[in-house]
Design brief:
calcium channel; about 25% helix; vWFA_dom_sf; transport; seven-stranded mixed sheet; seven-stranded antiparallel sheet; calcium; alpha+beta
Amino acid sequence: MRGLLGFHLDTSTPHGGRPCCQGPAACVSLQKTAVILCLLLCSTSLSPTRGQTKIPLETVKLWADTFGRDLYNTVTKYSGSLLLQKKYKDVEPSLNIMEVDGLELVKKFSEDMEAMLRRKVEAVKNLVEAAEEADLNHEFNESLVFNYYNSVLINEKDENGDYVELGAEFVLESNAHFSNLMVNTSISSVQLPTNVYNKDPDILNGVYMSEALNPVFVENFQRDPTLTWQYFGSSTGFFRIYPGIKWTPDENGVIAFDCRNRGWYIQAATSPKDIVIVVDTSGSMKGLRMTIAKHTISTILDTLGENDFVNIIAYSDYIHYVEPCFKGTLVQADRDNREHFKQLVDELMVKGVGIVNPALTEAFQILKQFQEARQGSLCNQAIMLITDGAVEDYKPVFEKYNWPDRKIRVFTYLIGREVTFADRMKWIACNNKGYYTQISTLADAQENVMEYLHVLSRPMVINHDHDITWTEAYMDSKLLTSQAQNLMLLTTVAMPVFSKKNETRSHGILLGVVGSDVALRELMKLAPRYKLGVHGYAFLNTNNGYILSHPDLRPLYREGKKLKPKPNYNSVDLSEVEWEDQAETLRTAMINGETGSLSMDVKVPLDKGKRVLFLTNDYFFTDISDTPFSLGVVLSRGHGEYILLGNTSAEDGLHDLLHPDLTLASDWIYCITDIDPDHRKLGQLEAMVRFLTGQDPDLECDEELVREVLLDAVVTAPMEAYWTALALNASDESKQAVDMAFLGTRAGLLRSSLFVGSEKVSDKKFLTPEDEDSVFTMDHFPLWYRQAAEQPAGSFVFNLRSAEGPEGPSQPMVVTASTAVAVTVDKKTAIAAGRSCPVIAGGPCLRLARATELDCFIIDNNGFILVSERPQEMGRFLGELDGALMTQLLSMGVFSQVTMYDYQAMCKPSGHHHSAARSLVSVSVIQTFPPPANPKTPLLTLTRKLLLEWSAWGSWLADSGAEAHKHKKQDALQPCDTEYPVFVHQTAVQETNGIIECGTCQKMFVMQQIPSSNLLLLVTDPTCDCSIFPPVLQEATEVKYILPTSRICRMRSQKLRRRPDSCHAFHPEENAQECGGTADTSASLPMLLLPLCAWVLPLQLLQ
């Protein structure tokens, strides 16, 4: 166990006069010592020689030692670090330091996670059994009349005050277990997308049948109160969700969410697949036809997941791959690649004559090569042919590549209302175990594309194989239309639901999919943070090597004032986070489900990339049984592999716990309070007290963590009296120097004491949940704790932070000083606590140095300025202000430059090119939010199914406005890889001096380390203009890849992955003659309304 102490210094002069010290006592020390320095410099400065001021080396060393001694005395006094060290020393005989067995730890975490996930699977199985039994006992009734709770209409009334049809009273109550949303835990409700008629006979019969799920939903939740959302997504389009909730349309009055287009539905309904999309770009596809074709491709892409592989070939009188880098191969259909394909498809142009045979030949060859090379999904293979039907003699291609086995299915999509070629297109599909549909409008695409999923699901349905599917991490918006955004990462367990009726067996009827969400945050609570040490952490990845949960996963980015999901947030590879694993040894072992360990030297970024820690980490890993997931646990060498254990009585611990200035880590689980409704209102500290006093025997608490908290509470209790005495005896001057003192322990206990009134605290966000870097979270220990843990024993680490407030940038700069308190037992050392106090730094204290024509800086070990005579320089990087000096320090080895990488960055596109030679740095589709289930659903605000007629004006309508839309896309940020420098002081160089040649003059400088700290004193001669040297910046730059290693051309499909265990590609009883027919071409609105719709709707919706 380990802890830390700290304090702050104010460097600003908000009112233009003397520095206003609003923080800890160190300000007094800084000001006083700065005056000493100035006096020494004034008395020892030599006469200028050749325009150069000589800097007295001994004087600078004397000042650094004096400053360091005064600073150390101040921070030691106010932090109380020596007292805390003594208190732990006093109890040392009763302490035990245990070495953590990382392999046993990861196995225990895995077993707990597997047990939790197994309960979710059991709940889903119960729903599957109930749904299939209900369908078996239900007879379809074409004239069924049935009222149900429509999620959109519930509680809605008409102008007479009566409930609207399907909108009866539905009791809703706020529930903390469901993110404080208004829900009904006694019954489910039913949602339908706008383009599905809520009284269609298929819908009414399905909803009626699925009423049987209501008691199962409730029983599941009662049996396992950790369950969250349970649901049934029907193949007809309705979505039954428990608990019942009211669904709010978007600003256009549209319900875009269609359960059949969600990853959990598609992955559960079908086996993995290799898909080649072949699209006609000949001149006959001009205008609206091409618009519909593009939308059809986009809809197909939305049905693919990370276990699928895909490519797109466009053809006219020649063939070309929409992404030249993907020529002759298939790539994994992860989110990143799908979005990239969508951008490229959006740029397709039409010209020439359509010759389909070469394109079909190319598609068959790719699929055959992948199958023979044992690459891709090794399951279903299919070609999607999208054309207006002008195809020539195609039979020889099928005879050569697909007959008689017909192992590659061919699905055909006839674009437009023309039916001349319908028979040909249907023949192709029916003779290749596929399905034919005609897509006449944008609104037709969704329903018609979904037909191919029903075909691919037939073998599984006929076999009645209920495969369990776990999805990748995702942020689900199904409940979050106009409600507050809940950006929690989820995974879903899902299973298909089949018709068991004998008369429909060969048809392989998929009724739908049931699923339940699992919040990854809840899963990771089973790897308690306190067991992993200061720098340790746990993480999960999928069978494809993608991150499911990791403290360094950053799924969001800021666009203006809004946080949005990154386009590739759920396809971040393990090698892009643990990028030190150059040989991908860790990635390979975890994907293969192995159990083992390895060690790596790593560079860990801190403080938003401004600083870096050099650690040796031990990685322990194993699989989670019956899931596609693997778990990793990381422990840092040294103190990270030890845990401090002790014993104290509950009575003593309780007495010392009950103090108003003591808090516990709010994210940590000391006691389980989120299952029993009576416990959900309890804070962790309150729950622990009830547990220790026996007031609530039903409370379950982590007894090991509770013991650690009790020990820490007893040992740290004297600090309260110590700090109180300091506050009472402090002079007004010293009160202006120190805001507060605080300490934290490895058990997540935090004590703090104010030396000023709360209204005078410089940084009001500090130590609050608003400032995640300063508190204990599920992902990390506080920044001040982590830095101090790596500081030499007995020394303090100083870190500058801006005290944000309504006044903006003129707010004081606050310095936090921290030190670690370590305990050694039997030659094993563990960190018991971290102590810190915030101090306000007196920047302009060095103003008198101007009299000597010298500049004085105090910088930290990463080159950031803590003290300067110019307040505006506080917090800035030295190289930004003085490139000559930083360049010299680097060349002398005083600082080293460490190159860091960020494979989750977002960059502005570097340019836009329509040709195949387009810049391959701009590699990802530019979409700043998760794609809706149907991007074109705003068209449905006027009608449920809008039929777009071929006409002369239809062509220009589809094309106009496209350019403006593309420019808007180009301006958006997109995923990229960046590298950035971090500068680190080499501690072996404690003092140095030198002369910088700056053309016509020379600039002299002296550097001296300040003892017992991470600070350096720099004294320079400002009279020499060295602006010929460029600034040294700590800026990220985009990695410019050169073909064939561009970001997109680094084939993700070539990375090792573990395929799902099951595959259902064909079944001998499958009825392949059910292969589609002519689509219904009746319009739901008179064609006379079409021109009006065209003018009213946004033009970009028709792209």
